[in-house]
Amino acid sequence: MKNEIEIDWQKIDSIISKYDANHEALLMIMHDIGAIYNYVPRQVIPLLVERLGVKESLIYSVATFYKTISLTPRGKYIVSVCTGTACHVRGAEKIMGALEEKLNISEGQTTEDMLFTLDSVRCIGCCAAGPVVNVNKETHGGLDRSSVLEIINEYKRRAS
Amino acid sequence: MSRLENREALKKFRDAIKAGRQQSKKKLISLCAGSGCGAYGTAKVHQALTEELSRQNLQDQVEIKLSCCHGFCQKGPIMVIHPERIFYPQVKEAHVPELVEKTIKNGELADSLIFKEPGTKEKIVHEQDIPFYKLQQRVIFGNNSLIDPTNMEDYLAVGGYSALEKALFDMGSEQIIDQIKGSGLRGRGGGGFPTGIKWETCSRHEGRRYVICNADEGDPGAYMDRILLEGNPHCIIEGMIIGAIAIQSQEGYVYVRHEYPLAVTNLEIALKSAREKGLLGNNILGSGFDFDIQISRGGGAFVCGESTALMASLEGKPGRPRAKYVHTVAKGFRDGPSNLNNVETWANVPLIINKGADWYSQIGTKSSKGTKIFSLVGKVNNTGLVEVPMGTSLRKIIFDIGGGIPKNKKFKAVQTGGPSGGCIPEQFLDVGVDYDELLKLGSIMGSGGMIVMDQDTCMVDVARYFIEFLKEESCGQCNPCREGIKQMLEILTDICQGRGKEGDIELLEELGSMIQKFALCGLGTSAPNPVLTTILYFRDEYEAHIRDKKCPAGVCKTLFHYDIAEDLCTGCGLCKKKCPKEAITGEKKKPHKLSQDACIKCGICYEGCKFGAIVIK
Questions:
Q1: Which residues on chain B are in Cβ contact (under 8 Å) with A28?
Q2: Same domain (yes/no): A34, A95
Q3: In a domain, A145, yes or no
Q4: Domain identity same for A151 and A86
Q5: Distance from the CA of B91 to the CA of which of B233, B293, B507, B555 falls in 20 to 30 A?
């Protein structure tokens, strides 16, 4: 298969063992794998089938049902615009528009240089600071069009 | 840390902590480390404060506490200096040297940094005198500024785990259930089902029973559960253990959103220290009772807040709900009797056990007891978390505590209950908020989100927003929800984009009532609420969109344009400078002009103009 990446099998194995290979922990195991690669590489699925004793169809079913799991590669920085109600009434749409224009991608897409993925999240519970954008684990609040673009520039500088 | 083997050991341990703190002569600086203040930069202030204290050699005389959310998130980062409770809002790194020099070293006030009440501009020094706090009744949130969620001793110092002691050694399962029933506590997740009755029913079903905490706070605009879990996790743990004693369960789960990493971390730390002290696990406090709690992280699916969907997700499956012919208290997680309550419900439990059902049931209204935490957000001056007795009027919450609407704009509606709730207009501002009153208005309590909307909010757009949300979140199992919501969204999008036609409103009403009757789960049956309430109270806005092709609030982009009112424009040039598309031209001190072709309707000029010269047409 094309686009296969190198997998650290030992790491994957230790994640599965951390949850005692419990099939009920499938979603959390995929979260932890996603935390390493920013997505869940399809190569790991056969191992999950074997270790957890679940059907492949269940894994796909879970992976596609939950928004926090991605089966396609995502950028180094995942920019999540909060589109919760509080952020919505304070102009989240304008923030999203500014980011789409700046990064030249639509919501859900990744820039060609694999640096940014633009995503939306339904409320991260920082409603008082809205509109809010999360970049990986960092939260930026009280934004407007110009300050959000400055944030993108900052991450670009960090990456270069 | 050594294990506490019995009740006496816990008491002794708690007394020793309390005594140590009473003797301590250290000043306490409580710095809010909640998510709201965090987003405004608590970490930087903390670092600056630590450095400044050691530079001045004061580190041994002062204790810094990174505490649970203080609630007044609008003013973050918040600092409160104890014992006087001197309140400093919006503290920046640059303020730190002055604060340390004046207030910590010399015992004076840093005058320029004192809180000013937005309306009256009056300076208020102490936390307890600020209207935002003074008008609340903070029985659950009261100790927040004294609690560092990562330090169990803080929870014990304010009397933590004393309710557990009482439940384990002085009360039986029946007595606990009687107290909860007598208190009148109803589920804080939205449905408002009487908690005590749920516990009683669950305890009567045979099988391995489960205790579950629903922390899948998917309701956008509500974050009280996040704050409770990340700020005071021990109180949730204590509530759950008491629930386990009541229904005789050995196994508990907290199902928490993946999007709340700090809540997960702080809960993990709290569970670990509770286990080490023997408050969780086998033979709790030597009583012979075994109970432990595990964390399960969700995957960003709103529907998983529904109990049957949540339990499917806990089992490692997609979170699809099922019809509730058999209730989860009989057959839920792993087909066992399962007692699921929301985070805030669990937080109320230790309070009721400690102070008694009679005390608790004095707070609130006839049918809704206790306090409720609301997340007061949107177009309101004092955004934050507000705890008030049930029955408090919307006006008191939004205008007295919340300080009214920013920039003197006009209040239009308040949305309660999230995507399952509705929009309540001005004429009902004096209604006291409880489960039944909100239901009468076509909305619901929900988990307590309260989103304030002003004249610049388009109610058709709000309805479209919620329906779009629900279309994304529909699990797709049942036709009314999957297809019905999709059709509603198409109609609403048409209306918002100028393609609305006569009969659309009636069609939305018909579709809405069909979905309410026939959808499988709570997500579907409540989905039409935001549309139906906005039609009920703001029909004229729908009609303006459909008949006049106008969006009066200036939100739906194809249905309005900005223009400059020549008589109001002073030619200050601010809009011209700020416009990202150079659409505004004009000479200084002369009325400017706006080119409609170049304008992208971003609204920067409208927001920025101090003279109201940018108008919506």
A1: 296-297
A2: no
A3: yes
A4: yes
A5: B233
- Mutating which of A23, A65, A121 best tests the B interface, going by the most B Cβ atoms within 10 A? A65
Q: What is the mean pLDDT of chain B?
A: 94
Distance CA A30, CA A34 (A): 6
- Please report the residues numbered 458 through 477 in chain B whose beta carbons come closer than 8 angstroms to any beta carbon of chain A: 462, 465-466, 469, 473, 475
Nearest to A125 among B74, B223, B418 (CB): B223
- Which of A20, A126, A135 to probe the B interface (max B CBs under 10 A)? A126
pTM: 0.93
The reply to whether residue A85 touches residue B317, judged by beta carbons under 8 angstroms, is no
Is residue A5 pLDDT above 90, yes or no? no
Question: What domain range includes position A57?
Answer: 9-65
Structure tokens at B221: 């605009």
Cα B538 vs. chain centroid, distance in angstroms? 26
Q: Which of residues 303-342 of B touch A (CB under 8 A)?
A: 313-320
Question: Residue A159's pLDDT band (boundaries 50, 70, 90)?
Answer: confident
| Nearest residue of chain A to residue B451 (CA atoms) | A86
B603 in A contact zone (CB under 8 Å): yes
Q: What is the pLDDT at residue A1?
A: 43
**Which positions in chain B touch A39 (Cβ < 8 Å)?**
none
Q: Based on the domain organization, do A105 and A135 belong to the same domain?
A: yes
Segment A93-120, tens digit of pLDDT: 889 999 999 999 999 999 999 999 999 9
Separation in Å, CA B26 to CA A78, B15, B66, B125, B416: 43, 19, 16, 21, 43
Distance from CA of B518 to the nearest CA of A (A): 23
The chain A residue lying nearest B259, using CA atoms, is: A124
Q: What domain count does chain A have?
A: 2
How far is residue A62 CA from its own chain's centroid? 16
Decide if A4 is inside a domain. Answer: no
**Separation between Cα atoms, residue B447 and residue B249, nearest integer Å:** 26
pLDDT at B1 over 70: no
CATH number assigned to the domain comprising residue A106: 3.40.30.10
d(CA A25, CA B329): 23
- Strand B338-342 and strand B210-215: the pairing is parallel
B608 confidence band (pLDDT: 50, 70, 90): confident
- Using alpha carbons only, how large is chain A's radius of gyration in Å? 17
**Of B466, B473, B602, which has the smallest distance from its Cβ to A94's Cβ?**
B602
- pLDDT tens digits along B68-120: 899 998 898 999 999 899 999 999 999 999 999 999 999 999 999 999 988 78
- The CA–CA distances, whole Å, from B70 to A141, B35, B105 equal 18, 11, 24
In a domain, A71, yes or no: no
Residue B312, C-beta contacts closer than 8 angstroms, at least 6 positions apart: B318, B319, B320, B321, B322
CB contact under 8 A, A27 and B449: no
Percentage of chain B beyond pLDDT 70 is 100
Same domain, A27 and A61: yes
How close does chain B come to A114, measured CA to CA in Å? 23
Inter-chain touch A83–B220, beta carbons under 8 Å: yes
Of residues B313, B384, B462, nearest to A128 (C-beta): B384
Please, what are the domains in chain B?
24-136 (3.40.30.10), 152-361 (3.40.50.11540), 371-454 (3.10.20.600), 459-547 (1.20.1440.230), 561-616 (3.30.70.20)
| A72 in any annotated domain | no
